Amino acid sequence: MAGLSFLCVAALLLLAGGGAIPPPEEAARMARFVLHNCDWGALATLSAQEGLRGQPFANIFSLSDGPPGPLGGSGVPYLYLTDMEISVQDLEINSNASLTVSLAQTPYCKKHKYDPQNPLCAHIIFCGSIVKVNDSEAGLAKRALFSRHPEMETWPKDHNWFFAKFNITNIWVLDYFGGLKIVTPEEYYSVKP
């Protein structure tokens, strides 16, 4: 446990120092870096709720692509979900979604006095779908999530929690001036953060 705490502190110090931020010309690395350094994201679904059907609906979810530290990220955003959650009910009707993660939730942007909307406070928009992980991937998802969100292990069992992942089909990176950069999933998964 002490080793994990040390890794978390070391990762935050490296991120706060700004030395680990990939350069703007490495958009795929930036996407991996931002996802790996974020513990939550805004997941947007198409609402299936009465009175909101078909309308965009964004909600915050804890996520992880692997244990903290420079070598822990797979690039796959894993989530721990229950059918009792309103956005999960939307996903049961239409599994398509978008996920936004931002360095605004890390010390980096505050240290540099970047507003969350400033392009230098990088954020990544993923589009794709949410799918339940199969049994062979469940252990990986559990390690990824519980290493960053240990409270999850104590959540009520009667809520029927399950592991899911964001199946990425499109990626947009905003990390510098001049507009969004498009990164393919192949480019994204071929680099390390």
From TrEMBL:
<dbReference type="InterPro" id="IPR014631">
    <property type="entry name" value="CREG"/>
</dbReference>
<comment type="similarity">
    <text>Belongs to the CREG family.</text>
</comment>
<dbReference type="InterPro" id="IPR055343">
    <property type="entry name" value="CREG_beta-barrel"/>
</dbReference>
<dbReference type="InterPro" id="IPR012349">
    <property type="entry name" value="Split_barrel_FMN-bd"/>
</dbReference>
<dbReference type="GO" id="GO:0005615">
    <property type="term" value="C:extracellular space"/>
</dbReference>
<keyword id="KW-0325">Glycoprotein</keyword>
<feature type="signal peptide">
    <location>
        <begin position="1"/>
        <end position="20"/>
    </location>
</feature>
<protein>
    <submittedName>
        <fullName>CREG1 protein</fullName>
    </submittedName>
</protein>
<dbReference type="GO" id="GO:0005737">
    <property type="term" value="C:cytoplasm"/>
</dbReference>
<dbReference type="Pfam" id="PF13883">
    <property type="entry name" value="CREG_beta-barrel"/>
</dbReference>
<feature type="domain" description="CREG-like beta-barrel">
    <location>
        <begin position="22"/>
        <end position="190"/>
    </location>
</feature>
<keyword id="KW-0732">Signal</keyword>
<dbReference type="GO" id="GO:0012505">
    <property type="term" value="C:endomembrane system"/>
</dbReference>
<keyword id="KW-0964">Secreted</keyword>
